Amino acid sequence: MNKRLIKICITLLVLATLASTQILSASALISPYRRGDVNYDYSIDIDDVTLLQKYLANTIDLSKRSLYGGEVNGDGKLTIDDVTMIQKYCAEMIKSFNTEDAWLHTVEVYNFYSDYNSGKAPVDTPITFYAEGWGGVEPFTYEFYVDDVLVSERAETDNFSYTFDEKGIYNITVRIYNAFDEYDKYTQQFEVVDEYPSEQPVISSIYFNKLKVEEYDFSLVLTANAVLGNAPYEYKFSIDDGAYVQDFSENNKFDFGSYMYELYKNDDTIGVKHYVGEYTVEISVRDSTGQITTEDFSFLVNFAMIG
Q: Going from the N-terminus, what domains does the chain have, and what CATH number goes with each?
């Protein structure tokens, strides 16, 4: 059985209640979060100040969304001046923050995956890579690179196909641009192997529907796909040494978020801390002739916000 390790960084995020969502012509504008609320707990207090102080001291990392919340004086930079302004707000020395809305200029790579996982992609086979963007003003446009060479020019198409003619390890990069031509990029190492000699079904790809999990977000879904053998395929998912089993069916998705919610739905403190840890899901695929292939998929949920 092979194991894959994926780190899913959790960003503390609680959406503020907003009166409306604005629309700019044909482009959707996502409403901004509350300035000063760095940890998105519906309040601006000493906890937000402490997080910014730790970030400026280089002892923790903060997500882009938290950095947006901490930038309160409108100069586009996160400095001790922002910390001071939030302290004054907490002491009721000021009543509001006067800022330009930098939220509109944000863009983030929300997801990046392919129809073959690294180590599963065979030479001389078209591999399709998919990306998703998140941020302020759309439309998003996408650019793709293989080993820093542009292979798919910037366009609104969020995927590209590529055929590798040699086995090896490649760097696959996506750049996602927002409507202001600002971009975020994400690079993953991708291993290409020789063609499969087996006629057994092979689990070609396993991926989540997002790279990051937000607090109180239980929408994390795992997808598996199979090749070879004889289609159609049935899939089985098992977690916690068989404590929960989603038996063989045509459904190739495992709703990990709902599984976690069911475990903790009666806990008033339910939230991001319940996700933290390493998990292993046993995935089996059965083809139409009854041949079964099983693989363990291990992943780490990491509470990256506080290091």
A: 33-100 (1.10.1330.10), 106-195 (2.60.40.10), 198-307 (2.60.40.10)
